């Protein structure tokens, strides 16, 4: 904790060195300076051009669309080599806004970019349905202390406490089913992306989406999504390298941090110092897993009242290799079973999406210094041809205690696979795991509700090889 804060402070001060820009001069409280640009590799520019959306006719009244005014400001600024597009306080109703290379979109404190909720506000292809989209861009930044909001509640066709029913914009057939809604902010094929000090709220679908990008820094970002709406993920990182997520606060219905590999591998993801609450997984690799995931590091996370904690959900041929989870505190609980998950604090499920597809393996995964309070145990499930191999648990304390009245007694293999399977509860369930090390693992059972589960471990010996237990404790308390 201590050394991490130091790193952040040092980083912040490097970012803030430099001469005043004209934006900072007019807003002395804005933490903005051209020194930060060096982190974005935009060279030696000392004073950046500042373009104000108000000079291009944006009204910010939240009623009249400001799409073309904001877009003209960005285009004007981009044509002159880039600069800062300043969005002053006000509410700017817009359709899709396209960011360009070398542009900082500065949404001021008190300013909201409010995404439209009509299909006509977005381009034709559903893959470009975002309120803010940067595509094939370099050195792009979103910051300023303001809000980008998606009016997600307008996409609810029926409010239900267990899970809302959402609209589907599938009229063109470009996307089908209920996952056919706009995302909030997207970076596709980008390099040097910086998202910081901004509030991203009420997405209709996924919130912040990073696709096929390299060198992405996301910090001091607060994400809020409706707790009852499906698919409002926090941050989805797809097929991207060198992503850093720090100091974020994510409170949302669906998966909070969700790396995927649909179009290419994902290397070097670091997530530190984040607070997460979700009705789904706090961290979930997959299920889109066509390519490899490598070198992922999660540290100093606080996960509160989530349906799952640290998850890997492999359904395709990509492999997962070298993942560390360290210094994490979490509480997990049951929610309505229409949401995937059964309060598993640590969860790995590898199985093939369809009978004729392959599924990858999971190797070298470490869980170190983890404190858990949970309604269910750890779930590690591989397949005969897809072992989980090289797992380490070190200094893991897990208190099992019931806190809701949802029934237990199941394993959740969804999506696909065996679905929901009736199965007794245990501290640690394993199938097809090889080379597993546990050191200083303490399982504590609390209250009469959990006493009848019985076993700290549950596995078929023929599917588990090379298990090492050092200093394992299993205790029952009242
Ligand atoms: C962005 O800025 C850099 C550094 O000034 C410059 O080399 C590059 O051409 C700019 N990119 C665009 C698309 O303007
Ligand atoms: C839209 O999705 C619904 C629900 O999945 C389906 O019944 C309907 O046929 C779809 N319409 C189109 C045009 O794809
Ligand atoms: C990420 O790195 C891998 C391995 O070098 C490479 O194959 C892939 O194209 C890179 N992806 C991006 C988006 O840079
Ligand atoms: C991952 O990070 C390492 C260490 O910083 C670096 O050497 C490597 O090139 C990175 N991989 C990719 C694909 O960028
Ligand atoms: C594992 O990943 C970490 C970053 O999370 C990296 O520092 C380390 O070098 C990687 N180890 C191997 C063997 O690739
Ligand atoms: C686990 O509990 C032990 C004994 O109470 C304590 O010394 C240790 O610091 C705890 N570790 C974690 C990661 O919570
Ligand atoms: C785990 O906690 C111990 C004791 O607090 C500490 O010495 C060690 O560095 C931690 N491990 C990691 C990987 O952070
Ligand atoms: C979006 C967000 O979390 N912004 C915060 C960034 O950090 C400053 C200083 O700690 C806070 O005041 C902001 O609320």
TrEMBL record:
<keyword id="KW-0732">Signal</keyword>
<keyword id="KW-0378">Hydrolase</keyword>
<protein>
    <submittedName>
        <fullName>Uncharacterized protein</fullName>
    </submittedName>
</protein>
<dbReference type="InterPro" id="IPR012334">
    <property type="entry name" value="Pectin_lyas_fold"/>
</dbReference>
<dbReference type="Pfam" id="PF00295">
    <property type="entry name" value="Glyco_hydro_28"/>
</dbReference>
<comment type="similarity">
    <text>Belongs to the glycosyl hydrolase 28 family.</text>
</comment>
<dbReference type="InterPro" id="IPR000743">
    <property type="entry name" value="Glyco_hydro_28"/>
</dbReference>
<keyword id="KW-0326">Glycosidase</keyword>
<dbReference type="GO" id="GO:0004650">
    <property type="term" value="F:polygalacturonase activity"/>
</dbReference>
<dbReference type="InterPro" id="IPR051801">
    <property type="entry name" value="GH28_Enzymes"/>
</dbReference>
<dbReference type="GO" id="GO:0005975">
    <property type="term" value="P:carbohydrate metabolic process"/>
</dbReference>
<dbReference type="InterPro" id="IPR011050">
    <property type="entry name" value="Pectin_lyase_fold/virulence"/>
</dbReference>
<feature type="signal peptide">
    <location>
        <begin position="1"/>
        <end position="24"/>
    </location>
</feature>
